[in-house]
Amino acid sequence: MRIPALKEVISRILCIGKLQRQSIISLTSLLILTLTGFISTMYFAHLLGAETLGGYKIFLAYLAVFSLLAEGGISAAMIKKISEGGDSASYYSSSVFLRAVLLTAVIAGIIIAKPAFIDLTSSGLYHLLILTVIAGGMYNIIISAVYGSGKVGISQISALLNETTRITTQVITVFSGFKSAGLAAGHIAGFIIGASFAFRYRTVRLARFGMEEIRSICTYAQWSFLSGAGTTVIAYADTILVGYFLTNYEVGIYGIALQFSAIATLAAAAMINALFPQVSYWHKEGEYGMIQNAVGKSLAYALIPAVPAVIGGIILGDNILYFLYGADFAKGTAALQIILPAQLFSIFFLTGIMCLNAFNRPKESFRITVSSAVLNVCLNLLLIPVFGINGSALAFLATMAFSATYCAGLLKDTISLKPEIPVMKDIITASALMAVFILALRGVSATDSWPVLFTVVISGALLYFAILYKKNRMLREDIQEILKKSGMIKN
Length: 491
Prior knowledge:
It is a multi-pass membrane protein. Keywords: Cell membrane, Membrane, Transmembrane, Transmembrane helix. InterPro entries: Poly_Biosynth_Transport (IPR050833), Polysacc_synth (IPR002797). The protein is mostly helical. It has 2 domains: about 15-420, no CATH class; about 420-490, no CATH class. It is built from 18 helices and no strands. The radius of gyration is 22 Å and the shape is globular. The two termini are about 20 Å apart. About 50% of the residues are buried.
């Protein structure tokens, strides 16, 4: 069989529709990142243990907070303005200026507040935190300009280079004995490589700008920043509060359960990433029928892998955590079983936030995220002292359910956050049959070794997708269309 040359492969990919192509590139990138991320995390978990990983998770929480302050919602505003067309250069230039001012202020604040970072200073992570915030700021402004220009594929490749460089650097440095410092240093290397690649494909250039551009960016950015602050609180409040009430050991266990559960949102992340620039453009043109069709279809495709991942994770969660990460992390099984259903709600929440931002309604995004953040913090404060990490998982589940419902309510007069019903029926049927199959296999053969567990997981997944492919016409036609356009099968 003749192996296609690289140019031929690229040519075939370009024949696929824009949204399909960008979604495929985005999903492929995320799958590669997830696979390498899981493998590296398993390595770190076995080598470093829950205590060291817990300290690293706290470093990531600090990094998220200071990166948010240095970002100030400006990148989201720049993406929105560039995606609408018009004078992209002036908006890009004003955004670079504002980001430089914010980054300088944040770094100055970290230096002034150094005495407060006792744990970071003692572990040697303080200076790495400063360098990571700087490198992350440079990376973010460059990749945002590329993404806003509609080059979703390039931005995804840049993100892929960022993450693979980070993981590779972390593996090397941890193996060399640098422990949590090596994990932190990986982020710096990843940001530098990712930014270097994206910079080559940047089409907008620096130009003169005035107060009009600055005011326009700041008007959008203030609500985007506040919305981002709420999202950051939702993402990291549980980690910080688990660390406050419990220990780094529990933080490590909870962090692994949360990280593993994110596998259910991979397809959703790819769809959202590909959709935003196009939905923003359709909104400007008033093409709400196109938006509704794209959102309904993207939700259906996001749930195709998510629903079986959640069901399989609930059934096999104890074995998965034990064999992949170690005996200590199997203690997070109950938390994982609570978090997994929450990720289904998060798919609708993230899709709703994307739509609100694309519709130029950042104020409403803020209302959702700040309400969700307050609810999340309050529930964590109430539940962690009583139920430990399971309490934090319950807080996450309640927060995601509330957020998804709130998003759907705000968008109901414009579009419906509803996947295509025929697809959902087929997903539920295939998932139910897969669940029965897995439970039967687990009943006749104990999943007490990783080869048996792997066989059960793969068999269940193959059965699910075979049933779904046979039952669902839309899925069959879309797959056949992609294969035809790419030249993999003949018309």
